[in-house]
Design brief:
Two copies of one chain form a homodimer. Chain A is of the alpha/beta class and 392 residues long. Chain A is 38% helix and 15% strand. Chain A has a six-stranded mixed beta sheet with strand order 4-5-13-10-11-12, sandwiched between helices. In chain A, strands 8-7-6-9 form a four-stranded parallel beta sheet, sandwiched between helices. In chain A, strands 2-1-3 form a three-stranded antiparallel beta sheet, with no helix packed on it. In chain A, helix 6 runs parallel beside helix 7, helix 9 packs across helix 10 and helix 10 runs parallel beside helix 12. The interface between A and B is large, with 48 and 48 residues.
Chain lengths: 392, 392
């Protein structure tokens, strides 16, 4: 099988191009890589309108715009097409019309991670790897375990010692092999990388490491375009390193390139105020993100200090600038407050990290960033049930 | 607002017809009620093909075939369109081609109950009730709490004393009022009924009590028709009292009436072998279901002995006969075995009750009920994460 529509893996920093293969870093400068496409060939074979009209799972519907062979059935659990809903109660409370939620908790393993992992396991099958490996403490691990099970590929997950039993049980049920690593997530990250290297297993670890996986996040843009019937003014996304935000924006740029839309949305990155390396850099108008010293927040899913890969944060920062976007820090108190408001007003039970995307709207209004009449979509990235303990 | 397409609430036992209103029992004989429609009027205004072509949530897409006013926006959290997937690993293991899963865990509150509760709360708004009430220990309670929050209607849930903290937390997060009742589910059922009567609140309790709610289950049939592109030979559904099975079959009968299909699927009801009142009646070719003495199974979601409403079981039994269907008991050991197989082979983590729909296929094959070449769809009714404790 061949990845026929792919041009290259291009370094986002120095521009050097590589043949599509299992690769995570630029040969020249060590920078992170991005999949580039031969869009003319793609749209010669299938029009964007044809793709947008398909009713299959999102990865299958948009497979020609993803690093998936045309003659391959993608590894899918039926991900995507999560609901976009008007948030009437929030609109009243915030005295702002046109607030929407895109509820990614309605996915097979209850988070947006199903998009990149469906693509990652499809690519793993194409490359005929004998196993996949990831470091994770949460959503990525659960999604990796489930999609590996569907693909019939062994999955090895490294978790930091002390990861809650519930999360381990969720990964174990799908048959993943789990190893606890002394230390924190960064230590697990290193061990996973070493194993991937040694065994030539495919490394699915989040952040921007795997250039293929994050392409799956683009499908969020295609769906939003269809469901919103156009382009919302603002899209608010909780960010750790920020691949969802960057890839969602890439998806909109592809829609613009194909002539479907003429304007682009403005992207908003949200972080917990006690772990906000990208927000801090944005607020200080810097051109590089510095790691955060001591993360301290209940929003575990985005509590990434970017210790060993601050340049991933910089990549997200550049998208914020490019999209004329914005960045917002949210306090734990506001997360607790908005978790309740979102559940009781909109019927959506979101995990603490996800709630930041809604809490941020209040700040955007207070700061004057969000003008009257502008529409805003908050992306709810994961289900609250996965972190029920924080509630009990 | 008027329920313009509704003909009546008709008694399923004596045929007596009533004006659509808040009503749970036949005035003449006390039997359970069913919504009947003026199909000619419906299809004069909108064709079935038009409905099938819509991309909205399932309740909105099929609103004209539900007890929802045409000029009302249904109460929705984006339910439905759950994935239908080929189960290749199970096919190999059971040496039978054409096995599919319809994964209802991919719904906003992680179970099929989102379908009936979306309809129930839409109807509650139409009748302008001041509150809703339900007895529940599980999926119904969580869905009722979430959809009530979205509808902005107070929700009172009666649970038996000793209901696990996790399930109470899930209902509480949406702002429902929860009261523990001394005794078991039947006691909670009685108290909920009394409160509904006294306060004139809408009673959402599962089983066949609320004639409007269960109409939402028909959407499963419309989706299956579209996703399967026709009619599968067998549809396997875990049953307590069995409203999902009965309403799904009603949906297929509507499709046949509208000329979209010429044959009907054969319906299979599955129960845990230590709480199997309907299966027992089917196996003994009886025409009435008797309550079960002492339920004893890990499949909590379908462990309904039908103590105070065995006639609800009889209604389901009649559908099994009408559809030339089948009934299967499943042991707890097989539930545990298939929970693992389903997660590790297909990437689907299902609650114990749901797993019975897959385990049943083995029995159908062994009994000679399922012939070679026949297709079978197992409906996975709820997510395993809701019952993680049984795993830990």
């Amino acid at each position: 099988m061949k990845l026929v529509y792919l041009n290259s893996l291009q370094c986002v920093w120095c521009g050097h191009e590589h043949q599509p293969s299992i690769k995570y870093k630029c040969d020249q400068c060590g920078g992170s890589l991005e999949v580039t496409y031969d869009y003319d060939s793609i749209f010669q074979n299938v029009s964007l309108d044809q793709m947008l009209g398909r009713r299959e799972d999102t990865i299958t519907a948009f497979r020609e715009l993803l690093p998936i062979c045309p003659d391959m059935k993608p590894v899918s659990l039926g991900e995507g097409w999560s609901p976009l809903q008007r948030a009437s109660e929030l609109e009243q409370r915030l005295e702002h019309q046109q607030i929407y939620t895109k509820n990614e908790a309605v996915n097979p393993t209850l988070s947006f991670k199903d998009r990149p992992l469906a693509v990652a396991l499809s690519v793993a099958k194409q490359f005929n790897v004998s196993g996949v490996v990831t470091a994770s403490t949460g959503n990525t691990g659960v999604a990796a375990a489930a999609y590996s099970a569907k693909a019939g590929i062994p999955c090895h997950i490294y978790v930091p010692k002390g990861t809650p039993k519930e999360k381990l049980a969720m990964m174990e049920v799908y048959g993943a092999i789990i190893d606890e690593v002394e230390g924190n997530f960064s230590d697990a990250y290193v061990v996973a990388g070493e194993e991937a290297e040694k065994k030539q297993w495919f490394n699915l670890t989040s952040t921007f490491l795997n250039p293929y996986a994050i392409e799956g996040d683009k499908t969020l843009a295609y769906e939003l375009y269809l469901q919103y019937d156009g382009v919302p003014d603002w899209i608010v996304i909780p960010i750790g390193a920020g691949p969802l935000l960057v890839s969602c924006f890439k998806g909109f740029k592809e829609l613009k390139r194909a002539g479907k839309i003429s304007k682009l949305p403005r992207m908003v990155g949200v972080q917990a105020e006690n772990c906000a390396p990208i927000v801090r850099a944005f607020q200080e108008s810097r051109d590089h993100v510095q790691p955060w010293d001591k993360p301290d927040t209940i929003a575990g899913g985005i509590a990434d200090p970017l210790t060993s890969y601050p340049e991933d944060g910089t990549r997200t920062l550049m998208t914020l600038y490019e999209s004329k976007g914005y960045a917002v820090p949210v306090s734990d108190d506001n997360i607790r407050k908005y978790q309740k408001l979102l559940a009781q007003g909109e019927g959506i039970f979101a995990e603490p990290s996800s709630v930041t995307a809604v809490a941020a709207i209040e700040s955007m209004k207070n700061d004057g960033a969000l003008a009257e009449g502008e529409s805003v979509v908050s992306v709810i990235t994961g289900h609250g049930l996965k972190d029920l303990k924080s509630l009990l």
